[in-house]
Design goal:
Oligomer: heterodimer
Order of helices and strands of chain B: HHEEHHHHHHHHHHHHHHH
Number of helices of chain A: 3
Largest sheet of chain A: 5 strands, antiparallel
Helix content of chain A: 10-25%
Shape of chain B: globular
Distance between the termini of chain A: 36 Å
Structural class of chain A: alpha+beta
Helix content of chain B: over 70%
Order of helices and strands of chain A: EEEEEHEHEEEH
Largest sheet of chain B: 2 strands, antiparallel
Strand content of chain B: under 5%
Strand order of the largest sheet of chain B: 1-2
């Protein structure tokens, strides 16, 4: 999964995602906070503008796309649909107990019930982190879970 | 007296609003509309059936606000100018910017020599026909959605190089003409380059200071501080015989390295748009369409044809060198045809000098040229899909 990122001088930043057989989705983040979404059916075609939205709408759409609003049941894994789930961003401080441990090592999922959907480390984001990924100080864990589970995670991290 | 001035200012801004609305409805760029309205209601307005349309006079306030417009236009170019980005892509940008410069400047020089202009006049003409309009081109790319396609990278990359070239060019040219002739001109250029060198060093080294100055919580203090610094440095530059526009550009580059870029864009864009509109109006005021005859008219006809062709060719060649397909490379050329604000900044400087062809022929030509090229450029971009279909039909028939 490649995301192509380019600076657009005087306009903002452009992100391109390959969707299928050469088609690309283009997201243009304007300096003024506007977001435009384009679809380019093939490399030689012109991009078609799909949507033009403000930051708030874009974040709403992003939350829907990440599954924070509705989690489909994937049949290969029995999973409770998380109707109550919310996404939280949890900062890992220097002294946290989990620093230096892998995700599977500290058993965060069974201990608290949350799913770690991504780790933000500096400028990069690791989506769907590997169970062997080591948690470092300064990481931001993006986690999905109910309010109770999120609370449990807070306590787990601050132990 | 002040009451009369307020009425004048209200009238001026209102006619700008009307002209801008009309242009917007017609799907055209607002810049030519502002100039045209300046031509038709300003001091040089034509008389129709014995009634003069000259309802507005060229008061000092118009010149002052226009000056602020120029300074803010260049300041914004500096703010959006990223030295790091330029260095990161320097190989690619050097190629496309180099092609653009060599092809278009060569055509400008050739036209100037053919018309028997003096070296300084040729230098002005070359600058006017070389530089595409960042404002018109960027806006058209966004409006038509081309900004999401690869050709936009070539077009915007070319504009980045042009902005840098014109900043240096303006500095040298204005020092030359404002500093007089001969040895005085040489020392003026040295002073100008020295002043710019100081600004560049301050811009690179003083980023933390600029950051601290700008990190005020209050938005109104932020606006006052920024405008104050820009106007102050610009005014100081003028006192030293350096172009105020160039000084503003480098103040902008000092801001570009801080975290305040978006804030500047958000809070100061309205000020820039207002003052820049008045600058275009003032250009219309200063232009006598009567001067657009004889030499200026012939120059206009020749320049429109040749420099449209040269931008189409240089953009196409740049696009191919960048690895674009034929169609996208053609679009890169089409997108660069529009000329605008910088050609007018040069024309305003020529008016300040006011000797020989610089006093009448070149300013009148520049205004006609920007009107023609801005409309032609945006129209060509809109018509590109139709042109491409026509070309395709032609090629399929011939094979």
């Amino acid at each position: 999964m490649t995301v192509y990122e380019t600076d657009v001088p005087g306009v903002g930043r452009k992100f391109e995602l390959e969707v299928d057989d050469g088609a690309r989705l283009v997201v243009l983040m304007h300096h003024d906070g506007r977001r435009e979404l384009f679809h380019r059916p093939d490399p030689d075609a012109d991009s078609q503008r799909i949507a033009d939205m403000d930051g708030e709408t874009a974040r709403q759409l992003g939350a829907i796309l990440t599954g924070a609003y509705f989690q489909p049941i994937e049949l290969d894994r029995t999973q409770v649909p998380l109707g109550e789930a919310i996404l939280e961003w949890v900062d890992i401080d220097e002294g946290a107990a989990v620093v230096g441990q892998t995700l599977s090592g500290c058993d965060v999922r069974n201990q608290t019930g949350v799913s770690v959907v991504a780790i933000q480390r500096g400028d990069e984001t690791l989506p769907n982190p590997d169970p062997d990924e080591t948690i470092a100080a300064g990481d931001i864990l993006v986690v999905l879970g109910t309010r109770e589970e999120q609370q449990a995670l807070q306590e787990f991290v601050e132990r | 007296m002040a009451s009369g001035l307020l009425l004048e200012a209200g009238l001026a801004i209102t006619v700008l609003a009307v002209a801008g609305t009309l242009a917007y409805r017609l799907g055209q760029s607002v810049i030519p509309a502002y100039i045209v309205i300046g031509l038709f209601v300003g001091p040089n307005a034509p008389e129709v059936a014995g009634i003069s349309f000259a309802v507005l006079e060229r008061h000092e306030f118009v010149d002052l606000l226009a000056e602020l417009g120029v300074v803010l236009l260049l300041f914004f170019i500096g703010v959006e100018f990223s030295i790091d980005q330029l260095l990161a892509n320097r190989d690619r940008l050097a190629v496309i910017g180099g092609i653009d410069l060599v092809v278009n400047a060569a055509v400008g020089v050739a036209i100037g020599l053919a018309f028997g202009f003096s070296p300084v006049e040729v230098a002005f003409l070359t600058g006017i026909v070389y530089i595409s309009s960042s404002a018109i081109v960027t806006k058209s790319l966004i409006d038509l959605g081309w900004v999401a396609d690869p050709e936009a990278e070539v077009v915007l990359g070319t504009l980045v190089v042009e902005d840098l070239v014109i900043a240096v060019y303006l500095a040298v040219l204005s020092a030359l003409v404002l500093g007089g002739g001969g040895g005085a001109a040489l020392s003026a250029v040295a002073v100008a380059l020295g002043f710019i060198a100081v600004l560049v060093v301050v811009a690179r080294v003083g980023t933390p200071v600029v950051q601290r100055v700008l990190s005020v919580d209050s938005d109104e203090l932020f606006v006052l501080t920024t405008l104050g610094v820009v106007a102050l440095v610009g005014g100081l530059a003028l006192q030293l015989g350096v172009s105020e526009a160039v000084a503003a550009f480098f103040v902008g580059t000092a801001v570009s390295a801080t975290d305040e870029v978006h804030r500047v864009e958000k809070l100061l864009s309205p000020a820039r748009d207002l003052f820049a509109a008045i600058f275009f109006l003032a250009i219309g005021f200063q232009t006598d369409l009567g001067a657009l005859s004889g030499t200026a008219l012939a120059l206009l006809a020749v320049a429109v044809v040749l420099t449209s062709a040269s931008k189409l060719a240089s953009g196409y060649w740049s696009g191919l060198r960048y690895g674009l397909s034929e169609r996208r490379a053609r679009r890169a050329g089409i997108a660069l045809v529009a000329r605008g604000e910088f050609s007018l900044v040069l024309a305003a400087l020529a008016l300040d000098v006011g000797t020989g062809a610089l006093a009448d022929v070149i300013p009148a030509f520049a205004v006609g040229y920007v009107l023609a090229m801005s409309v032609l450029g945006t129209t060509l971009m809109k018509a590109a899909p139709r042109l491409e279909r026509y070309l395709e039909e032609r090629t399929t028939e011939s094979t």
